[in-house]
Write a structure and sequence with these properties.
It contains 16 helices and 12 strands. α5 links the parallel β2 and β3. The relative contact order is 0.13. The protein binds pyridoxal-5'-phosphate.
Length: about 425
């Protein structure tokens, strides 16, 4: 598949009808377990000598199509699907930080990830060091120490659509023997290809733009391969385990079992096995269905976002607009370099006037729905300070740049003129009545 273009891969990668009863569409393997045939064959399956189904917590053919498709789209060595984006993030944090360690990150993360790094992962010995000036590369470097396990960033931050200089940040990480982990949820592989800009691991919430229809919760971890995990910093990839033994029954380390994909191998062999949190086959099917139209959806959403940014900038009730498309965005140059197809379909804006007026604007919108799932075919509005980022304390709001007068929009696939008219009628109703 690797010789084909993106749009061919997102429809065909990972699926060969001949392996599935010639079914043109991918089957949903709705089964807990698979027939093991003989006792000898069972042993071959367990040791990896033969490939095939055992039990859907540790592998399912529908889920495997999704894993292979995303691996191809991102150009990685291996991928694993999990039950949600937060599972993907938590598994990577727990695995890289196994036994304790810290992550250098930005305080502009998805609300639950931010909260987990701040208050929850520390209960497991995993802490975060937050870069305050996220545009200053030297700040990332200053925070790296002997116990740092990764730099962790989002490719497009939410709700402020910050864009970072990924290649420079990757250089700093690699100089210190630390991998760069990117949450590429909002960009999707269509808008941003993290491995081409220095990332080593990608995490996704496939709930958002990847599936795109607001009908499933899903997550993915993709590994590029080729990163050198030192024994001092990452002993977990150098420990021999009977569970991943070779065909001669010799225990192996994750790096011996999968030199190019110790992260995905460890997640599959230990995390899926012991924590579970596998993706269901129907949910994998929905994510695959969504990926089939990824390019068309994202390109229309990005085009509509541009028009809406331009519209909002001209409205007297709007104090400011944040998106790299905005006139005064400081991220224009970086966005052009890293996101030539556009930096996503989420934007936020500040309203002049009172909080009461802001609440009324949310209620007055008719086409935009008020909910918190982004990257959906439906356009939506949210008030981050009271919803998606409400778990965060006021000082983190300040660091993350969440304002009290800020609304966030995720632009869907409706007629853009209807979306613009909806915004205008809501402003009219509240400000000119
Ligand atoms: C939604 C989201 C997540 C969490 O994903 P779930 O599938 O809801 O668990 C993580 N990162 C980003 C950027 C998100 O938008």
């Amino acid at each position: 598949m690797s010789e084909y273009g993106f749009d061919t891969k997102r429809i065909h990668a990972g699926y060969n009808p001949k392996e599935h009863f010639n079914s043109v569409n991918y089957p949903i393997y709705q089964t807990a377990a698979f027939d093991l045939d003989s006792v000898d064959h069972a042993r071959e399956l367990w040791t990896g000598e033969a490939s095939g189904g055992i039990y859907s917590r540790v592998g399912n053919p529908t889920v495997a199509i999704l894993e292979e498709r995303i691996r191809e789209l991102d150009g990685g060595a291996a991928a694993v699907a999990v039950s949600s984006g937060m599972t993907a993030i938590s598994f990577v944090a727990l695995l890289l930080g196994q036994g304790g360690g810290n992550f250098v990150t930005a305080s502009s993360l998805y609300g639950a990830a931010q909260e987990a790094f701040t208050h929850f992962y520390p209960k497991y010995g995993i802490t975060a060091k937050f870069v305050e000036n996220r545009d200053d590369i030297s700040e990332y470097e200053k925070l790296i120490d002997d116990n740092t396990k990764a730099i962790y960033l989002e490719s497009i931050s939410n709700p402020n659509i910050e864009v970072y200089d990924f290649e420079k940040i990757a250089q700093v990480a690699h100089k210190h023997g630390v991998p760069l982990v990117i949450d590429n949820t909002i960009a999707t592989p269509y808008l941003f290809r993290p491995f081409e800009h220095g990332a080593d691991i990608i995490v996704y919430s496939a709930t958002k733009g990847i599936s795109g229809h607001g009908n499933t919760i899903a997550g993915l971890v993709v590994e590029k391969g080729g990163f050198t995990y030192s024994k001092e910093r990452f002993p977990q990839f150098h420990e021999k385990s009977w569970k991943i033994r070779d065909l001669q029954d010799q225990p192996r380390t994750p790096l011996e079992a999968a030199p190019d994909a110790p992260v995905v191998l460890s997640l599959k062999a230990f995390y899926m096995e012991f924590f579970g949190a596998n993706l269901g086959s129907f949910d994998a099917y929905l994510a695959l269905q969504g990926i089939s139209t990824l390019s068309e959806r994202l390109s229309k959403q990005v085009a509509s976002t541009k028009q809406i940014v331009e519209f909002l900038e001209q409205q007297p009730e709007v104090a400011w607009v944040r998106h790299p498309f905005a006139k005064d965005s400081k991220y224009k140059e970086l966005a052009e370099k890293y996101f030539p197809k556009g930096a996503g379909a989420i934007l936020s804006f500040g309203l002049n006037g009172s909080k009461e007026q802001l609440k009324q604007v949310v209620s007055a919108l008719k086409v935009f729905s008020h909910h918190v799932n982004i990257g959906d075919v439906r356009s939506l509005v949210a008030y981050p300070a009271a919803t998606t980022h409400t778990e965060l304390t006021p000082d983190i709001h300040k660091l993350a740049g969440i304002e009290q007068n800020q609304l966030r929009l995720s632009i869907g696939l409706e007629d853009v003129n209807d979306l613009i008219a909806d915004l205008r009628q809501a402003l009219d109703q509240v400000y000119h009545n």
